[in-house]
User: What shape does this take?
Amino acid sequence: MNQRELQELLLPHFHWFHQHPELGNEEFETTARIRQVLSEFGVEILDTGLKTGLVARIAGKKEGPVVALRSDIDALPITEASGLPYSSQNGGQMHACGHDFHLTALLGAALLLRERQDTLAGTVKLLFQPAEECGPGSKSVIATGILDDVQEIYGIHVTADTAPGIIVVNPGPVTAAVGGFRIIINGKGGHASAPHECIDPVIAAAQIINAAQTIVSRFIDPFDRAVVSITHVAAGSTWNVIPRDALLEGTIRALGTDQFRGIAERLERICLGIAQVTDTRIDYVWQLSAPSVQNDPRLTDFVIETAKGLGLEVKSGTLGMGGEDFSLYQEKIPGVFLTIGVGSPQATHHPGFIADPAPLHTASELLTALGAGALERLAK
Ligand code: NI
Assistant: This one.
């Protein structure tokens, strides 16, 4: 199948997936449609027991190594405002992170790999992973054991601010270690005219909000990158009562799990110190939801060579301080997370995000070449 035929075949599928976005763990129609398309292509679907999402397999004639290609499939709780003729038909849900692009590209790769199945030097597993946004869906895929024999893994993501079809890939950290925290400040409520008889949790909250901003500015190497944001503040309900408690929530992002942990622990010390000087009792919990995506340097070279071999332009770059649960695969399997430009007028997670579908066939061809090329290298 030539490029034009592949693109013509993929485009209606892409439009359908874009029109039918579903949130994480609810991707039932999406999964059914992927299953149907793969069946039409004659691709074997594995029995994983996953509620949504699926894993397919294309095995060469000979026994050999096993590699995996990964796409995510879920959408975001965003009301689309892209103006596209094929905008979301599911109110309040939108493919604003390009997962419709990723999964369509992987369907294209399934078809191309099926065409050359007999020549494959081993097996390619295709992961259509659920619940990346609200996940970690990768945890549920790993728990099936379906990846136990996989030796290398490659994942693809769109990048909004790069021209369509340009590949962006980097060795080392590509996304941040991401997590959140919750702080509950317990004081003593009372009449606003008698603060000395109360323990005011609002004052403690204000001090924590300010002190938290010293973590990045005073304790992180200026050459490193980290974020501490307090994003949710709640206390009281009226003007003349000092409330009993206050709530703060926020996020921590860092390039690496150790640094993430260091920041989370410093915030705990700030809470303890402020509790002491304000007579409040502070409950603090934090959680790491996804470690940093860390690309294997040797396999990144392989990706760059493969992309250049297809005549593609390759740039170096990262995805910034977002999170990606692809990192959980990389804890077990060496792998590379690469991105492809889709030239959107708006960033991902924006209601005006638009992925240019023109490089869909490019993404399919690259994924195919990575799967087949990795098998050949491993089989040697
Ligand atoms: Ni995404």
